[in-house]
Amino acid sequence: MDWDRVYDVLVVGGGNAALCAAVTARQAGATVLVLEHAPKAFRGGNSRHTRNLRAMHTAPTSVLTEQYLEDEYWDDLLRVTGGQTDEELARLTIRATADALPFMEACGVRFQPSLTGTLNLSRTNAFFLGGGKALVNAYYATAEKLGVDILYDTEVVSLRLDDGFVRYAEIISRGFPRRVRAKTVVASSGGFQANLEWLKQGWGPAAENFLIRGTPYAKGRVLRDLLDQGVASVGDPTQCHAVAIDGRAPKFDGGIVTRLDCVPFSIVVNKHGERFYDEGEDVWPKRYAIWGRLVAQQPDQVAYAIIDSRSERLFMPSVFPAIKSDTIEGLAEKLGLDPTKLAETVRGFNAAAVHGTFDNSRLDGCHTEGLTPAKTNWARPIAVPPFSGYPLRPGITFTYLGVKVDRNARVLMQDGRPTANLFASGEIMAGSILGKGYLAGFGMSIGTVFGRIAGREAAKHARN
Amino acid sequence: MQETETTEEARRALEICNACRYCEGFCAVFPAMELRREFATGDLSYLANLCHNCKGCYYACQYAPPHEFGLNLPQTFAQLRAETYAEYAWPKPLGAVFQRNGTVVALITTLGIALALILTVLIQDPTVLYAAHEGPGAFYRVIPWWLMTTLAGGTFLYALLALAMGFRNFWRDTGSSLAGPAGARPVATALHDILTLRNLGGGGHGCNDRDEAFSTQRRWFHHAMFYGFLLCFASTSVATVYDHVIGHPAPYPFWSLPVQLGTWGGVGLVVGTAGLIWLKVVSDQAPAARNLLGADYALLGLLCLTSLTGLLLLGLRGTGAMGVLLAIHLGIVLSLFLLLPYSKMVHGLYRSGALLRHALERHAGHVPPAD
């Protein structure tokens, strides 16, 4: 490695957005260096755990059915964000997803029909064959073939800004502190969701009990560094996307398998054996994202979903086996709950459940009466042993705070002036567009679209 | 079959896979897995034998080592397949040969060659052995008709019996309520999957033959080997009919049907086995089961030797080398027949069985449950 070499484009990060930027810049003729914090085996940031990309299309494609037009896409985004978005950037992203798929295919990304259990997404989302790691592998192979230089185990500590101009990057490469210079820099180093200390600033000590679903390398170091140097920020600094996942999941990197889809068919109690929210408010795909927050607000940030044997097969299999017992008291003991209290909660729920026709495939209206909080659907008594329990904890997917960019992916300073040679793509700037909530596959859309814009603009700037 | 550390590991792996399902576009294993929530040992055996070892799932896996889940499905399934070969072997005690199968195959082959040479020398006058022979029945002047037919017929029939019993054991052990009734359509589907190696297509883009990159080399080398083997088998069958039915003993002229079938089959076998050996040598070892490589190399070597000595015999059959070459070739063929039920050859049997079971499940209309 020639540490004195001045690259045209330095890409910070090694996920989807970073690689889209690197490949695009290289294709435009720029020399490119990618710095990935993770070792090769864990490269790709949170993109490793993704599986699809939401794409606008005016006619059916090889993997997408019917059509999904700009306005419907925009409406979907508006609904989940509650308006916390930037219409110009959002519409630009949406429109650009229409030619994302051919670019991806040219980079060796392969698609498949939508996965089982996700048929509702077959119209709007293109699924990667083999998932996000296969996608990441394809991008790395393409980048290598094009002659992009890649360093793994290399963390960027600081991008030294001087009046909106990045002079150099301070890095630690395989344990050695170094400096790297480049004509332009693309920051694609993600959010800070793996930084528990930072999460505590928004959540207090409760954050200690959060599980991080994705890469442990998303510490937000570059994000912090840029904000500290006067770069404009977007997004709520305290907020993160949190879902309820299996409480037995590893602290980091548990990914998709830690999901638990049993909540609508269960009662969920906290560590005191008390219910705290309507488990049957809506179908799970529309509710899983609020349950992370709900569990985070409970004592010790833990909850327990309890079902009976009739519901065992109504949801996707869990990675860890259910904790089972023939009695509610026995189950309570295994879960570490007060047996008397849990039995009382279950009895109270069962007595309040109004007789109806249970149907797991729709909002069945089976509800409770005179119970607080009520359960408004699938309120079938927990009555047929064996009983199963699953511990739940908040699983953090991503954070919303980011750097502000313009439509050319150029990073803006707090005073509104554009930086001279700094661009951003991916989670580090996604808060501009997705300020709240989540839309399946949209993170990959932002990463791909802005990665390509950042790569194109950085190459253009460097070669001028 | 019985629970072992390997079945436990395979179950753990599949429970992770079943909660993830990102790989379901790769091959038949994942849709078959999704029909199940629990995995009895018979299910594990079925899924392991359904796996074509394309390694697509390993390179796509976010839980592959060094992730703490440490998923390595191709390696786990390869280990489990080796255990199922031992489990279903007939007679049962001979399952032990799958423990160090590479050594066993090499030893039997060596003994086969030695035995053929020794018998020939004992039975025949050395002047006969080293003389050039031509015309109908030339081979029988070196190795008498009765010896050749008894040994070949006997070992081959025994191999067929042992294979059939092994298949029966596999079929019983992997039985499930998910399979629909046998019929022409599922059988046709299974045959198509067997003959085209559809599951080495990786969803249409090829497999990870060597590393992260995709290729169809392994599939084509396997086709060369498999169809080469079939052509050789056809050659032997046609020759048997010529000899025993219409009384026209070998050797046959170069342009005759048996020699043409055998020649092209032999070329296919050499190309296929050499290609597969080469792929094994150069491929990434991470998803491979290293302790089983010996068995793979031994069988590929044996098949390669069978065709090489056959081709050599064809080239030199008019010379004094014919006698010794014939003995060596027949010694190798004898070993191959003996080893059919006791080498990696059985993978074809159980893979075909698993593909048939999968076709029966698919045609029964089962679709994986939605979440």
TrEMBL record, chain A:
Gene3D superfamilies in UniProt: FAD/NAD(P)-binding domain, Succinate dehydrogenase/fumarate reductase flavoprotein, catalytic domain
Single GO molecular function: oxidoreductase activity
Keywords carried by this UniProt record: FAD, Flavoprotein, Oxidoreductase
Coiled coil: none
Residue ranges of domain FAD-dependent oxidoreductase 2 FAD-binding in the record: 8-433
Cofactor names: FAD
InterPro entries in the cross-refs: CobZ, FAD-dep_OxRdtase_2_FAD-bd, FAD-oxidoreductase_2, FAD/NAD-bd_sf, Succ_DH/fumarate_Rdtase_cat_sf
PANTHER family named among the record's database cross-references: FAD-DEPENDENT OXIDOREDUCTASE 2 FAD BINDING DOMAIN-CONTAINING PROTEIN, FUMARATE REDUCTASE
Protein name, as recorded: FAD-dependent tricarballylate dehydrogenase TcuA
Lineage, highest ranks first: Bacteria, Pseudomonadati, Pseudomonadota, Alphaproteobacteria, Acetobacterales
TrEMBL record, chain B:
Claim: Disulfide bond is one of the keywords in the record: no
Keywords: Membrane, Transmembrane, Transmembrane helix
Gene3D superfamilies: Transmembrane di-heme cytochromes, Chain C
Domain of life: Bacteria
Keyword Transmembrane helix tagged: yes
Signal peptide: none
Record field: transmembrane: 102-123, 143-167, 224-242, 262-282, 294-316, 322-342
Protein's UniProt name: Tricarballylate utilization 4Fe-4S protein TcuB
